[in-house]
Structures are given as C-alpha cells and as structure tokens.
C-alpha cells in the first residue's frame, strides 16, 4: 500500500514537472524572435525630480547603439552580439513584457519606456513607472553584458 501511494505521488509530481517544462518550451518556441525581425530597440529612462533622462537606441540594421545623456555618442556591436542578445531576451521573456507596469502610489520614481520596432512596422511598447517586470533586472544585466551599458 505504501509503495502504491509513493508511486502515485511520484507519478503526479513528474507529470506536473513535464507539463510545466512542456508549456515553457511551447511558449518559448511560439514567441521566439529572430534578430532579423528586429529593426531597433529604444530605451528612455528617467528618475527623480528634476527628471534626469538617458536615451538609448539599439539599431540592429546598422549594428550601432546611440547613447544620449548630456551628450550623444555611438558604439557598435557584432552580429554575434545581436544574436546572443535576442536569444537571452527570448529566454527571459523580454519581447513578451506587458504594455504597462505602474505603481500609481509613488511619485518621482524611476521610469523606463521601451519601444521595440520590428521590421514589419509593428512597435511593441512597455512603460514602467515604479514597478517592473519580474525579469527586469536580469534583462538589465543582459543589456550590460551585450552592449557594455546598463540601459534599464
């Protein structure tokens, strides 16, 4: 009897694990982006009062990054960097973030606006104000590792 209960419990646990892994895999491959689909990613960050703003534009067509704070400068990246970034962004759900993450009870907080422009003309917008996606700080590290700057 005890072996039967253990076997049923083990089977149930393994079934749940298999279902979760299957759903994650399906979600990953269905929503997977390719670097060839992305035209650019524009990120505008600000915080405090008076608001200080930084703007970044990652141009996947010309393999360049525009950095704009008190002055503007450009850096470049490779095809390998772009492919690695998109692969990690897919893994962490960056292209599937909701349109809005806001905490209306906070004032003068950190805000981040993200605009992803695809080659078909579609623009995916994510606005964060004092509230962020669960993988926000993981993606901040991905941006820094790939492009050399913490853009989020």
3D structure, described in words:
By secondary structure, this protein is an alpha+beta fold. The protein has two domains: 1-30; 35-147, Mago nashi (Mago nashi protein). Helix content is 36%, strand content 30%. The chain has helices spanning 2-30, 79-91, 136-147, and strands at 38-47, 52-59, 64-68, 72-76, 100-102, 111-118, 123-129. A seven-stranded mixed beta sheet has the order 4-3-2-1-6-7-5, with no helix packed on it. α2 packs antiparallel against α3 (136-147). The longest helix is centred in the N-terminal third of the chain and has 29 residues, at 2-30. The chain is extended. The chain starts with a helix and ends in a 5-residue tail after the last helix.
Helicity level: 25-40%
This entry's quaternary arrangement is single chain
Q: Give me the side-by-side strand order of the main sheet.
A: 4-3-2-1-6-7-5
Overall pLDDT score: 87
| 3D shape | extended
Number of helices: 3
% residues in beta strands = 25-35%
State the CATH topology of the largest domain.
Mago nashi protein
Q: Which blocks of ≥5 consecutive residues have pLDDT under 50?
A: none
Supply the helix-strand structural class. Answer: alpha+beta
CATH superfamily assignment of the largest domain?
Mago nashi
CATH architecture tag of the largest domain: 2-Layer Sandwich
| Sheet having the most strands | 7 strands, mixed
């Amino acid at each position: 009897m005890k072996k039967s209960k253990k076997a049923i419990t083990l089977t149930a646990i393994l079934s749940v694990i298999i279902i979760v892994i299957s759903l994650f895999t399906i979600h990953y491959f269905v929503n997977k982006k390719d670097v060839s689909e992305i035209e650019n990613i524009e990120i505008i960050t600000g915080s405090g009062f008076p608001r200080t703003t930084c703007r970044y534009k990652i141009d996947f067509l010309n393999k360049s990054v525009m950095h704009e704070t008190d002055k503007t400068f450009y850096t470049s990246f490779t095809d390998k960097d772009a492919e690695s970034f998109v692969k990690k962004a897919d893994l962490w759900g960056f292209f599937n973030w909701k349109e809005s993450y806001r905490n209306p009870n906070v004032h003068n907080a950190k805000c981040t606006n993200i605009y992803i422009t695809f080659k078909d003309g579609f623009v995916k917008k994510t606005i964060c104000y004092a509230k962020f996606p669960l993988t926000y700080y993981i993606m901040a590290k991905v941006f820094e590792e790939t492009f050399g700057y913490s853009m989020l």
